[in-house]
Amino acid sequence: MHKFSGCVRKVVMFVPGSKRRRRQRRLLEEWAKHLQGALAEMLVAGEGNSTSGRSRPSMRLLSVSDGGTHLEIELRFEAGKSYCCVEPTCHLPAFDLAWWTKLRGVLAAHSDRVPPPFTLVVLCVIEADARIRSHKALGLEESAAAAIFRYGPIREQDAR
C-alpha cells in the first residue's frame, strides 16, 4: 500500500507468469474432465452386467498431478446395491495392458493430448449395507460394514 495525496490506494503488482499459471490451471481442469469421462467409460461391472442384478460402483476423479499423469480416483460401493466384490482391479482392471491401451484410445477420442505413462491410486469407499456377493463365499454376511481403503499405486508401465 502506498499513500498518495492523502488517500490510500492499492498498488497492483504484476506477477510474472501469473497468466501462464492461469492457462496451465485451465488446461489441467480440461484434462481432468477428459480423464473423468474416459475413466467412467472404462468402468466395468466386474463379472456382472446390467442383466445380472449387480451394480457398478460409482467413480469420481479426486485429484490429478500437475503433469496430469498421477491420478487418484474414488470407487464408491453404495448401500443397498449389489456388487460382485470390492476388488478395485475387478472394476478397473488396470493390471491389464489392454485396459490402458483402451483408456488411451478413449482419451484420444476426446483430447489431442498424449500423456506419458499413468499412475493410478484408488480410494475404495464401502458404504454400510452395500451387498457384496463374494462375502458369501468367505462365509460372511453379504451386507458389508462401512470401510475405506486405498489401493495402489498402479503403474501403467507395470501392466502386462
Q: Uncertain runs with pLDDT below 50, 5 residues or more?
A: 1-14, 45-51
C-alpha Rg (nearest Å): 22 Å
N-end to C-end Cα span: 60 Å
User: How many β-strand stretches?
Assistant: 8
Shape: elongated
Main sheet characteristics: 4 strands, mixed
Class by helix and strand content? alpha/beta
Read across the widest sheet, the strand sequence of neighbours is: 3-4-6-8
What is the average per-residue confidence, as pLDDT, rounded to a whole number?
A: 82
Q: How much strand?
A: 25-35%
Helix content: 25-40%
Strand and helix order? EEHEEEHHEEHE
Domains (count): 1
List keywords for this structure.
160 residues; alpha/beta; 4-stranded mixed beta sheet; 29% helix; elongated; disordered N terminus
